[in-house]
Amino acid sequence: MPAQVPFDTIPELFTHLVDHYRGQDRTVMRHKDKASKQWKRISWETLERRVQALAGYLHEQGIRPGDRVAILSENRPEWAITDLATQLIGGINVSIYTSLPEQKVSYIVRDSGARVLIVSVPIQRKKAEAIFDACRDLEAVVVMSDLPDDAPDGFVHWDAAMDAGRAYWTSHEDTLTPLADAVTPADTSALIYTSGTTGQPKGVVLTHENFCSNAKAALNRVPFGPDDHHLSFLPLCHSFERTAGYTAVLAAGATISYAESIEAVSQNLVEESPTVMISVPRLFEKVYNIVTKQASEGSAVEQRVFDWAVRTGKKHAAAQDEGGPGVLLKAQYALAHRLVFAKLHEKMGGQLRFAVSGGAALPKEIGTFFRAAGITIIEGY
Questions:
Q1: 299-349: per-residue pLDDT in tens?
Q2: Which of 9, 67, 135, 353 could make a disulfide contact with 208, Cβ separation 3.0–4.6 Å?
Q3: Contact call for residues 268 and 259 (beta carbons, < 8 A)
Q4: What does R_g of the chain's alpha carbons equal in angstroms?
C-alpha cells in the first residue's frame, strides 16, 4: 500500500503526516508508563508539539543544518522525538548502541563531531559523564532519567530542555519553520556506525533519499497500512529497524508501540497485539525451537496431532499459491489451527497478519513452518 503522504525527506514525511491527521486525535505511538504500568498513547498533535519543543531547544543550543546530534537510548518515544526534532532543523542523527562501552561511545561522539548528546537511563548518563571532557565538540547532554543534584555543567534534564525549547519555538517559529523545507533529499540524514570488529567503527553516511526511497519502495510491495500496528524492539540505531520499523511504519500511517525491553517482548506482544512483527531470524528460530520441543515432549497422540497439523498447514499454504484450497482442506486446516496453531498465534498477540525478517537469511524450514501455521514471514534486505 502506498505511503499516506508524498515525501522525499524526513521533515517532509513528518510535517505532511501531521497535517494529514490533524484534528483526528489519531494515535501514532504507544509506550508503557513505568509508574502506572499502563500503556499510554501519543497522538500526532502531541508528537508535533514535543518535536517542535526539542527542535527549539536544539536550535537555541546552536544546532544548525549539518550539525550532529547523538542519541544513546533504547527504543522509546523520546528516540523518535529526538530524531524528528534533529531532522526538522536540518541536523544529522548519530545513533549509538546502548550496549557499547564508554570508550566506543566516546570515539563515536568525537568522530562524528556531535555537539549535543541525548541519553536515556542512568547507566547511559554515567557514560556521558565519563566522556564529556574528552569530546571537544560536545556542548550539552540531555538526560531523560533523573538528573543528580551534582550533575556536571552542560547536563540538563529532558523536561527542562523541552520547557526551554517550547518557549524558544514559540518566539522563533517564523525562523524555525522554513528550515524543514530547506532540507533536500541529498542531504545527510544520519550517521550509522558499524560495529568496528576489525578496527574503529566507521560512520556510514545515509541521506534522506536513502531512507525515504527505501521506505516508499517497501510500502509499494508490502500490504501495510493505517490500520496496522508494530511493536518496536530491534535497535533503532540499526538501519533495518530504522527503515522498516520506523520510517516505513510512520509513512504507512500505522501505529508504533515501543517494547519495554528485549526481555519483555513476549509479554508486550500479548499486551499490544501487533498486526506486523519486524524481527531477525534468531527470534523466529527461538519460537520454532520452543514450539517443536514442546511438541516432542508431549504424548504420542499429541506428537501425531502436531505432525498432522504441520503437514496440513504446508498443503494449505501450497494451495493458496495455486488458486486456493478446496472445501475439505479448508476444514482440515481450521481444525489444525484450533488444535495446534492457535496457541502460537496467541503468544504473538493474536492479531499478527505477517512478519518481516531481516539482518540475515531466514532458514527455509523456519519460513515454511510459520507459513504452515498461518504467519507469512517476508524477508527484508
A1: 999 999 999 999 999 999 999 999 899 999 999 999 999 999 999 999 999
A2: 9
A3: yes
A4: 23
Running DSSP on this structure, what letter comes out for residue 245?
I
Q: Can you say whether residue 144 is alpha, beta or left, with left for phi > 0 and alpha for psi between -120 and 50 degrees?
A: alpha
How many of the other CB atoms lie within 10 Å of CB of 110? Answer: 15
> Contact at 8 Å (CB) between 268 and 279?
no
Pairing of strands 188-193, 276-279: unpaired
Cell numbers describing residue 5: 503522504
Other beta carbons within 10 Å of 197: 6
pLDDT class of 52 with cuts at 50, 70, 90: very high
What gap in Å lies between CA 244 and CA 76, rounded to an integer? Answer: 16
Q: Provide the H-helix boundaries in the chain.
A: 10-21, 44-60, 77-88, 102-112, 122-131, 158-182, 208-221, 239-242, 248-251, 265-272, 281-296, 300-320, 327-336, 342-347, 364-372
CA neighbor of 88 nearest in space, from 110, 120, 58:
58
Residue 117 pairs in a beta bridge with 70, 141
> Do 154 and 141 meet the contact criterion of CB atoms below 8 Å apart?
yes
Q: How far apart are CA 218 and CA 303, in angstroms?
A: 39
pLDDT digits 0-9 by tens, 150-160: 889 999 999 99
Q: What is the largest CA-CA distance in the chain?
A: 73
**Which strands sit side by side in the sheet containing 68-72, from one edge to the other?**
155-157, 140-143, 116-119, 68-72, 92-96, 188-193, 203-207
All three cell numbers of 352, joined, read 499478527
164-198 pLDDT tens trace:
999 999 999 999 999 999 999 999 999 999 887 78
Residue type, 369: F
Strand partners, 70: 94, 117
Whether residue 30 contacts residue 39, with contact meaning beta carbons closer than 8 Å, is answered with yes
